[in-house]
Amino acid sequence: MGEDTLVGAADHWSMWALLLVSAAAGLLAERTRWGAKVSGAVISIGCGFVLSNLGVIPASAPAYDLTWTYLVPLAIPLLLVRANLVEIFRRSGPTLLSFCIGAAGTVLGAVLAYWLVPLGAEANKLAGIFCATYVGGSMNYMAVAKTLQLRSGDLLAAGVAADNLVMTVYFLVLFALPELRLVKKFFKTRRAAVEQAVKGATAESVPITSTSLTASLAFSALLCAG
């Protein structure tokens, strides 16, 4: 049975219009002082979260599938187009260590939650799915669900809803932490280095043209195809 929402899942133009409006709202809000603290990505996610919970857009739609299947993989290589690879390799050691510590904490948290929170007969599969999602990103959700053969539509939908809610709150807290006085004091040296790097990258930025945009998208598509 379909969802009773203002914009139906099959109303593709309206769906894309609202998704793009949410993205634009995030980009515009990021120019403000409060928006810069939260980040445009979180604001855009929040817009979608509000629209979905108000019954404006459905929880599942072909537009979402297209985004996760094609647009997200296409966007990931674009992050590296203007990346300073020398700096990335130089800092990869501490970053990798931080990632491993975070991943280990996620695994331990998933195991602990499995024993403390009763989620029924499929609790072990849900724990594995959430663990993979929080370690490797949201794209792992459906992939791991398929691997673990979790086919219950209700459980998958409930898991997505819980994931989106928790991650929205998590991102809000995460992006707010750097603005706390105690955090600024404790990470003063690293924060200054990061801000200097961001300023340098901004100063060296060049305007985006139709040619550079097309070339970048073609490069990203080739990487995805390979």
Describe the structure.
The protein is built from eleven helices and no strands. The chain is mostly helical and 226 residues long. Among the domains are: 1-65, no CATH class; 91-178, no CATH class. Helix 3 (40-53) packs antiparallel against helix 8. The longest helix is centred in the middle third of the chain and has 32 residues, at 85-116. The relative contact order is 0.09. The mean pLDDT is 80.
Count of helices? 11
Order of helical and strand elements: HHHHHHHHHHH
The SS-based structural class is mainly alpha
Which spans have pLDDT < 50 for at least 5 consecutive residues? none
Name its key features:
226 residues; mainly alpha; 0% strand
Quick description:
The chain has 226 residues and is mostly helical. The chain has helices spanning 12-29, 33-38, 40-53, 62-78, 85-116, 123-136, 140-147, 153-176, 181-186, 188-203, 210-225. It contains 11 helices and no strands.
Task: Note the topology.
Blueprint: H1 12-29, H2 33-38, H3 40-53, H4 62-78, H5 85-116, H6 123-136, H7 140-147, H8 153-176, H9 181-186, H10 188-203, H11 210-225
